[in-house]
Amino acid sequence: MRFDVLTLFPEMFEGVLAASILGRAATHPADSAPDSAPRLSYHLTNIRDFTVDKHQKVDQRPFGGGPGMVLQCQPVWDAVQSVEPLDARPATRIVMTPQGRRLDQSMVEELAQLPRLLIIAGRYEGIDERVVERLAPIREISIGDYVLTGGELAAMVLIDAVTRLIPGVLGDDESAGADSFASEIGGVLDHPHYTRPRVWEGMAVPEVLISGDHAAIEAWRRQQAMARTRDRRPDLLS
Ligand code: 4GM
Asked: Same structural domain for residues 37 and 136?
């Protein structure tokens, strides 16, 4: 999987990608030969590098009035045209916007099957609608019903959620294995988790978890997951 990110703040991504499991997966691909290309790569492009404005501006006040500024078409269009030919794999274009379709785990799974995602992270009040229209087909995606100062954090959320599903990205200890598989796609919340010590501050771990009775543990976890879902997210059951 190749990710291209078009942003006015590439430095926001550098720390996150370098420090995390995501960066490790791109730098030390788990199962590729020593000099083969990583199966996972991130490529950051600064939209401002494509401005033709003498003061490097990429935004203007909105036609029709109103607060804030709008990201102009030209630098966004030219950045996309410049980046897409850098790899032969076809890019699925994505723009992060609160007006987009809401990201959920089933959309994440669908995106994880694709060879290349090109993500535009806008700033200001938004992006000139004409460039979004001209970039069709493009998927407008929102990470939730709230407004951020820019699309960068939204893009990082999407990248994290997609990357962890790519085979070989997570180590055995981190892997979304058989246990969490059901909760990732089955539409119920996960069961609670416990680790050592058996008693902490007078609070004991549920007895069944140290019983060694695997069938009983499974049944208890299923029951806990259902009870939590009914309590906290009844919408997932209807
Ligand atoms: C408006 C249009 C995404 C605002 C394009 C981006 C929230 C989300 C922005 C934009 C954003 C979200 C920047 N805020 N809920 N702000 O996914 O890029």
From this structure: yes
